[in-house]
Each structure stands twice: as C-alpha cells, then as structure tokens.
C-alpha cells in the first residue's frame, strides 16, 4: 500500500506507517498535478489537510485510490459523500487538535483583554517616546475570571474551550441548534479529576445578552451565524474569537460594531477571503489576528499523524 501525504504528516505518523509495511510518499504535489501523480505512482491513500482539494473529478480520475484522509476536523475540502458512494474510505482526526485550537482561543482572549495584540505592535515603534501614554491607554484591561464565556458549538473543540473557561473561573454558557447535555471531565496534574455536567441552550437571544466573551467553534456553515441582528443583541464591550471557519461571522458587520463600540475587540484565525483577508481587517487595531493556525502545534500534528496511521493500518487489514 502506498500513501501520499500531500500536505505533510508528522514523523510519528510516518514511522507508524513504515512499521506496518506501508510506503509513505511525502511529496508535495501541486493541485493540478495530483491526479497524474496518484495514477503514475499507484497511490492507494491520499492524505490532505486544508491545502489539497479532493473533488469529484479527482475521485473519478483515480480509480486505484482506496482511502482519503483529512488531518484535522473539517472536511469541506473533500467531497465526502461522493467518495463514499464510490466505495472509498474517508477518514479524519476530529479530536486530535482540539486542545491546540482551544488554547489559541484563550491566547486571543488574553491578548484582547490585556491589549497585547496592540501593545506588541506599538512598543517597538513608540515605546521609547510614548511609554507613559501607552501605559495609560492600555489601563482599562479586564480579567477573564468571573466573566461569562459563551461558546457557540459543542463539539470536541467547543468542549475543550468550555473546560479551559471553567478552569479560569469563568461562568460558561453554550449555544447549539438543539439543547444537549454533556459530562465534561477536567483532569489535573496530580491525578485529581472534576466532572461538570453542562447543558447547552438554543436560545440565541438570551445567550448573546449574557456572554462577555464569545468563542465560535462550529463546522463550516452556508450562512452567517453572527450577523448584524446578532451583534445588536450582544452586551456592550463583548469580545469575540472565531477559530471555526471563514463565513460563520459577517466580517464587514464586525468592523462596524467595533467602530461603534459594541464590540470591544475580536480575534480571527479564519477569514471569508482566505488566504487573502481584507486589508481593513488586517489594519484594524481592535483585531487580534492569526493565519489559520488553530491546530498547528507540534503536539497536535503528532496526534493527527498517529491517528491517521492507526486508521489506515486498520482499514488495510480489512481490504487485503
């Protein structure tokens, strides 16, 4: 069996595949040449992340392909249903990067609450000449502890965000399409564990009125979850972080509500026009920005590679 890890795979995942007698091709093939490469090299497994697209034309043109794997959660760059209809196995790693994404959420929350995103830009330029003025302008920071954290989405990432919020002493509320109850387990360094039963709500109006900090952790949507009507119902001075997908929040409306003061600050790791975000977003001092790196930690990539390898090895045993 041959595996093309076109968007890369961790060393641990690569070694696990090799130990199972599976050949790994770590070539980086341009999208226009993927079909020819797969057929010429008799590739059985195509592994991707977000860069390589696996659409119907590729699936139809590569009859020897047996498995398509996505390193991560979202599958919007793969025509999953069509692939399954054609008899292919489609795998992903829905929980491997959850902690990494959740930590980025709070990295942005802390940055916004303490003006770190702005002071890091200004200190090299004005720290020597306007130190006292900046100190004064950044004095209206706030703590996260004791505030209300609103989490939109209750999947694996949403659950990790909830657990981190609880550990910081935040009150937590969760919004889902239908109310759900989940038991979350917080584990500590000395072996102690604490269980929290969390029930989500589907009352968006009540959710928006109560949340001081909002984290969006949903799959890709066909329409905005957060648009002008939702911004209008939020608390004054709310903070928002989107690490989900571009297009779940109206970025133009976001800028308007930042300028009006309704939104104190926001963070975007994903963008509607990715990989070419609007300049107005990139230049806005109230925004904390990162280039879609939610799951991009060494730790997450190790887990992703190993989980993909384990699934491939298991499938290999069933099809041979």
TrEMBL record:
<keyword id="KW-0560">Oxidoreductase</keyword>
<feature type="domain" description="D-isomer specific 2-hydroxyacid dehydrogenase catalytic">
    <location>
        <begin position="11"/>
        <end position="316"/>
    </location>
</feature>
<dbReference type="Pfam" id="PF00389">
    <property type="entry name" value="2-Hacid_dh"/>
</dbReference>
<dbReference type="InterPro" id="IPR050418">
    <property type="entry name" value="D-iso_2-hydroxyacid_DH_PdxB"/>
</dbReference>
<comment type="similarity">
    <text>Belongs to the D-isomer specific 2-hydroxyacid dehydrogenase family.</text>
</comment>
<dbReference type="InterPro" id="IPR006139">
    <property type="entry name" value="D-isomer_2_OHA_DH_cat_dom"/>
</dbReference>
<dbReference type="InterPro" id="IPR006140">
    <property type="entry name" value="D-isomer_DH_NAD-bd"/>
</dbReference>
<protein>
    <submittedName>
        <fullName>D-2-hydroxyacid dehydrogenase</fullName>
    </submittedName>
</protein>
<keyword id="KW-0520">NAD</keyword>
<feature type="domain" description="D-isomer specific 2-hydroxyacid dehydrogenase NAD-binding">
    <location>
        <begin position="107"/>
        <end position="294"/>
    </location>
</feature>
<dbReference type="InterPro" id="IPR029753">
    <property type="entry name" value="D-isomer_DH_CS"/>
</dbReference>
<dbReference type="InterPro" id="IPR036291">
    <property type="entry name" value="NAD(P)-bd_dom_sf"/>
</dbReference>
<dbReference type="Pfam" id="PF02826">
    <property type="entry name" value="2-Hacid_dh_C"/>
</dbReference>
